[in-house]
Amino acid sequence: MSQWPEWLPLNSGLRPLFPYGAPQVPAEAVLNTNENPFPISAALAKAIASRVEIVATNLNRYPERDATTLRAGLAAFINSLSQSAVTVDNIWAANGSNEIIQSLFLAFGEKGAIGFTPSYSMHPLIARVTQTGWIDGQRRADFSLDIALAKEEIAQANPALTFITTPNNPTGSSITIAEIAELAQVVPGLLVVDEAYAEFSDEISAVTLITQYPNVVVIRTMSKAFSFAGARLGYLVADKAVIDSLFLVRLPYHLSALTQAAAEVALEYRDELLGNVAALIKNREWVESELKKLHLSVIPSKANFLLFSGFDIPAPILWKSLLDAGVLIRDVGLSGYLRVTIGTEADNKLFIQALTKIIADRESTKK
Ligand SMILES: *Cc1c(COP(=O)(O)O)cnc(C)c1O
Fold first, then answer.
1. Residue 342 in contact with residue 280, Cβ under 8 Å?
2. pTM of the shown model
3. Which of 150, 170, 179, 222 could form a disulfide with 228 if both were Cys (CB 3.0 to 4.6 A apart)?
């Protein structure tokens, strides 16, 4: 059974698929896509507008194709966070890290990829769209990564790309730099470390491994800690040979002059933008303790979200009850679990109040 008309020559691999669709519905507290709840400051918004005004006078011309200024800025940013010494030649920038992931599959996907489930659902989905073979590796029952088992599965799959997400989405759990190095020594192709939430974590970034292990490639994004999801800016830190390969698969002028300008200005305000990270970590600790007071289980998280379980209501029903109360969180399709993004204090209070009431109402109907 297919939703597609017979005459449409849609690729067979795409026929059973549905478009990515985290619900974008209005809610009082939007806690479903791990965005930063704090908007950029008025000063930064103004600085972006002024830069865009200048760039706009030149929009009759194609943008700077290699985004050299922006990539140099990203290199400096990474070096300041990780005491690394990467240069513009080690950075690739694109329209969100999703485009980075797509480019990796286009350039390196021929011999397939492996990831460890549950993890970021876009990895296998983009693999499928690019006709890259994908293997679902296993995690332990508590969703932590079993490195010994992962090594066995990698050896068996012999993939070109091994995906590790740390801190992992949707669980929030992370692995250590020593464990990443252990995997880098055994993967047959590239070890792709998706660090979308790295700024929230106290683990050492895998960018520090690239000099020793040139097969380590690290995906970062401005969408989460940086409060910049709407601008669409993701980037890759890798050996020069990896970056050079991506020039083969990128579309010409893929990164708009407006995007480049906005991201360059945002990097100039990085201290202000990352200033919210500490507050979000504190808020995460508060939400975690409140969830535990409700006798729920929470996976320890080093990101800006929590995966929780232990409620005796089916997850889709609890999700809908919360939405009816004005709180949009995420049903990630794991039976018995829901994921909540950490918001402002007001968002988090609304979430905990709504959840407390739903659970109490449920208890009283059971009596
Ligand atoms: C949110 C997220 C991304 C970010 O995607 P963008 O396209 O940069 O917005 C990448 N990887 C993971 C694991 C994520 O959760």
1. yes
2. 0.96
3. 222
